[in-house]
Specification:
Strand order of the largest sheet: 8-9-10-11-2-1-14-13-12
Helix content: 10-25%
Radius of gyration: 20 Å
Shape: globular
Structural class: alpha+beta
Largest sheet: 9 strands, antiparallel
């Protein structure tokens, strides 16, 4: 491939490094393929997975292959933010009873398989009936000064924490586009891997939910889902870049301006960009969870 056709921006300096990683991964796959074929004859390959339809925030630039999946948000009676987990039921698959987390939300099949990529399929929190609550809690080491100053890691995120969302700014891009926070979800316990989540409150989300202005042109399926999956202007998504599984952020990094991403979700690793105000309906091959 000629250099000028490389998908990575010139400023990133990532071409040689990433191609080397991808190439070595491909070679490693040759060595493991035979072992994988043998294992399939002696053990179950896992639970769930396969081609999955989901709704996520759109990938608009960089090497990421698709958007990041949206997590529906609800507000409890105390004003705390929670991520909605799909309803759990038991099904029979291949003669085995398995737990499935799936529900209809705004006419869309919302499923735990939305989050089964980048190794997350192995996390305890995505097991359908895992003993985890769904509260969105402040992450440790967030990139936002307001969160560092006002929230303890692991503390609940409340609606009142975002009271200035219509005017909030941090010197990156334009102010007034929404107030973000870094969160964890279904990740309580010292030995439980953290599901990283980005939470955002914005008037744009309110407009999306109501189908106002430019959002009147959203496909009906997407708009109905957004209406059901957002509350009081809050939207959230699993914050795992679909490229190499890094953790991006909305309006957090000054160097995002070099890639015209200062008002979007930017991944510092390889310059992938996502638009939180452009929800899309996509499909991908979800990885199976470990066998039950």
């Amino acid at each position: 491939m000629p250099v000028d056709e490389d998908k990575y921006p010139t400023e990133s300096g990532r071409r040689r490094f990433v191609k080397g990683v991808v190439g070595s991964a491909a070679l490693a796959g040759i060595g493991t393929g035979g072992a994988a074929a043998i294992n399939t004859a002696t053990q179950r390959s896992g639970v769930g997975g396969g081609i999955t339809q989901y709704i996520g925030i759109e990938n608009t630039d960089g090497p990421a292959p698709r958007g990041m999946p949206i997590i529906p948000v609800e507000v409890d009676s105390e004003g705390a933010l929670k991520g909605v987990w799909p309803e759990v039921r038991t099904e029979t698959e291949g003669g085995q009873e398995i737990q499935v987390a799936e529900m209809d939300l705004g006419g869309v099949t919302y499923s735990s398989t939305w989050f089964q990529y980048c190794g997350v399929q192995n996390y305890q929190g995505v097991v359908p009936d895992a003993d985890q609550d769904n509260v969105l809690r402040s992450a440790s080491g967030p990139p936002y000064s307001w969160q560092q100053e006002e929230k303890e890691p692991g503390s609940k995120l409340f609606v009142e924490d975002f009271s200035n969302y219509e005017s909030w700014g941090n010197g990156i891009g334009r102010s007034g586009l929404g107030k973000p926070a870094s969160a964890t979800w279904r990740s309580q316990g010292d030995d439980v891997q953290t599901l990283p989540v980005q939470v955002l409150r914005s008037t744009e989300v309110e407009k999306m939910a109501n189908g106002e202005g430019q959002y009147s042109e959203l496909p009906g399926t997407v708009q109905n889902f957004i209406s059901a999956a957002t509350q009081q202007g809050f939207i959230a998504w699993l914050n795992k870049c679909t490229h190499f599984c890094c953790v991006p952020a909305f309006k957090a990094y000054g160097d995002s301006a070099k890639f015209n991403a200062e008002d979007e979700v930017y991944c510092q690793c390889h310059q992938s960009v996502y638009n939180p105000y452009s929800p899309v309906n996509k499909s991908f091959v979800a990885l199976p969870r470990p066998g039950e």
